[in-house]
Amino acid sequence: AILVSEDWAFYQHNGYDANQIKEAIKEDWEEGRFARGASTITQQVVRNVFLDKDKNLWRKIKELYLAVRIEDKVGKRKILETYMNIAEWGEGVFGINAAARHYFGKRPAELTAREGAFLAMLLPSPKRYSQSFRAKKLTSYARRTVHSILSKMAQAKYLTDDQLVAERGTLLS
Known about the structure:
Strand order of the largest sheet: 1-2
Largest sheet: 2 strands, antiparallel
Shape: globular
Helix content: 55-70%
Radius of gyration: 16 Å
Strand content: under 5%
Structural class: mainly alpha
Number of strands: 2
Distance between the termini: 21 Å
């Protein structure tokens, strides 16, 4: 769920996704501001571990350079593990283990695809998007996003069509 949501091409790129960068530049130019991110999981690790969060061109250049260097020195599995363990999943909730326990009372390996999709939905803005958990009901945005992530998982062959249908039930009662 995290891969299809955050960085579909994670295992195909060398730290950056040139197509996503081109799309982001185009959208940013049209909006006249930094409107869209194009960071890969590797770039997010670099930003969260080594750089500040300011949205500026100089930071993006350093992020890109360091991402390529890290991809050259560290395996994809370690990069993904680091990302999952430093990501914020809600107010004071850091790392996939804490997130799985906080939201579902489970270990990460015990999560269903639907629960994984819920956690993936949180990542762009966990404090804001976790309102579904607090309300014990998915917002319309959360429902659409979780269903979209599940569809992407089926498209990427992480789920069969039958599993997709089964996972599209109610996430939170």
